[in-house]
Specification:
The chain is an alpha/beta fold. Helix content is about 50%, strand content about 20%. It contains 15 helices and 9 strands. Strands 1, 2, 3, 4, 5, 6, 7, 8 and 9 form a 9-stranded mixed sheet that branches. It starts with 8 loop residues before the first strand and ends with a helix.
C-alpha cells in the first residue's frame, strides 16, 4: 500500500461475526492494483474470532489499518462510524463477506475522475454457497441503471440494485446524504443508493466484473433468516420514498408505477407470514392504483380482476398449500 497522509480512497469494512470471511476480504483489498487507499474496519460487537483477525492484520500492516470495535449497533451505524473516520475523497463500502476483483478500485476511481460523476458502479458476480460450504460462481450482473429507467431514483425503486462491493462514492455526495439509514436494517444499501440519486448524484457504469457478492445459505443470510422482517423493511422503504416524493409535489406516473411494483413484490410473503402488514401494503397499493392487478402470475392476475387482489392472494395461498399437500402424498 502506498503511504500517503491523504489517500484518495477510503475502503470501509463493517463486520459482525465475520471470522469466516474477513481475512479473505481484507487480502483482496490489499491485492488491489490501485494502492493509494486507507482501510478502515469497524467491528460491530462481534462475539466470534473477528477481533482476533483484525488484530493480526493491525500487527501485519504496521499502522496502515484503521480499526475500531464497539457494541453491536447494526451495519448502518458501523458504516456511519467508518465514514466519520475516513479521510478519502472517495468512499468504498465493502461488506465483510464480499470480495473485490484486483482492478476494482482503479477502474471505478478513473471512471469518476474522467466523467465527473458521483457514483461509479461496476458489474458484479454472485458467489453461491453450496450445501457443502463451497462457493461457486453464479450469475453476472451487468445491467445499466438507465436500462431500467432514465431517472436513477425511479430505476432504483423499480428494480436496480448493486451491492456496496460494486460501488464507489464521491465524499461530497455521501456528505449530502448525511449517513446510512439505521432504521432500515435489511435494505439500507439500496436506500443509500436511492438517497444519493435523490440528491442529484450522477451514476457512471464501469464495464467488467468488479466484485464478487456472496449468497449465503440458511441462517447466515438475513433475508432467509427472517423473510417477513426483510420484506417489511422493503415495504417500509417504499413508504418512506413515497413520503419523500410527495414532499416535492404530486407523484408522477412513473413514480407511482415504481412504488406499486415495489409493494406488489412484498405481498406474497407478507400474506403468509404477517397478515397485518399485508393488509397495510394492500391499502397503500389501492391508494396508489385503485385498479391494481399484479402482472404475474397469470392466474393471480385473472383472479384479481374478478374478486380483487387481496382475495385473489388468499385464494393463491390456499392453492399453494393444496399443491404442497398433494406433492407430500406422492
Amino acid at each position: 500500500m502506498e503511504k500517503s497522509s491523504t489517500p484518495p480512497v477510503s475502503v470501509i469494512v463493517p463486520c459482525y461475526n465475520a471470522a469466516r470471511f474477513l481475512g479473505e476480504t481484507i487480502d483482496r483489498v490489499l491485492a488491489q492494483t490501485f494502492t493509494a487507499f486507507e482501510l478502515i474496519v469497524i467491528d460491530d460487537g462481534s462475539t466470534d474470532g473477528t477481533r482476533g483477525i483484525i488484530d493480526r492484520y493491525r500487527d501485519r500492516l504496521a499502522g496502515r489499518l484503521i480499526a475500531e470495535s464497539g457494541p453491536n449497533r447494526g451495519v448502518s451505524a458501523a458504516r456511519n462510524r467508518g465514514t466519520e473516520l475516513a479521510s478519502g475523497r472517495y468512499l468504498h463500502h465493502l461488506d465483510a463477506d464480499d470480495l473485490l476483483r484486483p482492478d476494482a478500485l482503479r477502474a471505478k476511481l478513473e471512471a469518476l475522475e474522467a466523467s465527473g460523476a458521483d457514483v461509479a458502479y461496476a458489474d458484479w458476480q454472485k458467489l453461491i454457497e453450496s450445501r457443502d460450504g463451497v462457493f461457486v460462481p453464479g450469475d453476472v450482473h451487468s445491467r445499466r441503471c438507465e436500462d431500467v429507467h432514465p431517472v436513477p431514483e425511479i430505476a432504483i425503486v423499480m428494480d436496480f440494485w448493486s451491492p456496496p462491493a460494486a460501488l464507489l462514492y464521491r465524499r461530497e455526495i455521501v456528505d449530502r446524504i448525511g449517513g446510512w439509514n439505521t432504521g432500515l436494517p435489511f435494505v439500507q444499501d439500496g436506500r443509500f443508493l436511492f438517497d444519493a440519486a435523490h440528491r442529484g448524484a450522477r451514476l457512471e457504469h464501469v464495464a467488467g466484473i468488479g466484485a464478487d457478492y456472496r449468497v449465503l445459505l440458511g441462517r447466515q443470510s438475513l433475508s432467509k433468516r427472517d423473510p417477513a422482517a426483510f420484506v417489511r423493511d422493503w415495504a417500509e422503504d417504499a413508504f418512506q420514498v413515497e413520503a419523500i416524493w410527495r414532499g416535492q409535489g404530486e407523484l408522477t406516473a412513473d413514480q407511482t408505477r415504481a412504488l406499486v411494483r415495489r409493494l406488489g413484490k412484498t405481498t406474497r410473503v407478507l400474506y403468509e407470514l404477517d397478515r397485518p402488514a399485508f393488509s397495510k401494503v394492500c391499502r397503500r397499493i389501492k391508494s396508489l392504483d385503485p385498479h391494481y392487478v399484479p402482472a404475474a402470475p397469470h392466474s393471480l392476475r385473472h383472479a384479481s380482476q374478478w374478486v380483487g387482489f387481496p382475495r385473489a392472494e388468499a385464494l393463491a395461498f390456499v392453492a399453494r398449500r393444496c399443491r404442497d399437500v398433494l406433492k407430500g402424498n406422492r
